[in-house]
Amino acid sequence: xxxNIKVITMKSRTHSLELxxxxxxNSSGSLLIRRIVQHKGFVYCFDxxxxxxAIFIGMEDEYVLISYVEWGFLALYITEIxxxxxxxxxxxxxxxxxxxxxxxxxxxxxxxxxxxxxxxxKSLSQYNSQEVLDIVFILRVLRLIRIVDSIQRFxxxxxxxxxxxxxxxxxxxxxxxxxxxFAIFGMEVFKDRIHxxxxxxxxxxxxxxxxxxxxxxxxxxxxxxxxxxxxxxSSFIVLVELTVVNQWHVITNGFEMVTHPASxxxxxxFHIVVVILIINIFIxxxxxxxxxxxxLDRSEVETTIEKKIQEQGVGIPxxxxxxxxxxxxxxxxxxxxxxxxxxxxxxRGLKFRIASKRYKTVDALLQHMFESELDPEDDGPPLDxxxxxxxxxxxxxxxxxxxxx
Length: 405
What we know:
- The chain is 59% helix and 2% strand.
- It is mostly helical and 405 residues long.
- It has a two-stranded antiparallel ribbon with strand order 1-2.
- Helix 9 (152-190) runs antiparallel to helix 13.
- The longest helix is centred in the middle third of the chain and has 39 residues, at 152-190.
- The protein is flat.
- The chain starts with 6 loop residues before the first strand and ends with a helix.
């Protein structure tokens, strides 16, 4: 706690099949299957299958027979999930931190159900539901998203988005407050100045949005009558359009024509506060978060502590941990991989490792952002030097008049 470094206790969890059928689960054939599933080649193999599936999806419109191959791909995907559930404990595989495991399983099950429903409808009534086909196609394409986790550069993007997602709520809250203030102020100044009469209205006033000042104006000719401050929802829509700078000069001129030239001040202030300041600060924060995630590495203190854990024989070897993969990373602060005492399988018992870096708040992420800018000399002596210090070096004795002289 003093060094703000979290060390996770890893407690082995026994697979349910090992408790029910221990002789079969610990047999040589079973161990071979589990080693294959735990090997990186297993993941790479299914990544290749997903790539091939993507090629077949693109060619399906030209070759009708390719649609029948989808059953083979679904069978392979279901086999992959079953093998992983056989190797890893289901409670670990479906832990709340295992996003990609949940994603893969749900997409495969949904695609299987949609394919079965579509095949059933076609066989029973010769009815080809385009809606069901669209759902099947979308679910199959979603499966391709899993590939991004297998590529290091893509994984950096995914990890950064997952890490900064909680911190983005702070900026979203700030942006909502600013929007709400400007929306209320806009309703007080521009309410009922512009009216929308509906798309099929025959009222002559619909041509100039209910205000003669807009007659033959660009604002009215482009059909911007919906862009008004008559209610809170319409106000927010107008502010969003101003944020993305969508014809903001046309909107500004329109409200200026129905009020006073001084109304431009409202739109200028909103542009400066939201577009120039808040949005640019938010983009800069995201870019810095990407740089931090890309260059993330353990500090000297963490490395030294990890070495001490390994020296005590209670650490998790590096080769047994995945390199940040969201797909294979079954080890979390709450769940562990199922293990046995058989050769080649990690033994049971309490083990420890340094927790992965996750930034749940803006303060934590900003702290790490500026750590690299600190002068190393201000950090004090290295941890190795501190651990080698004697009691006399650590605890300074009270000075006396003789020592002072």
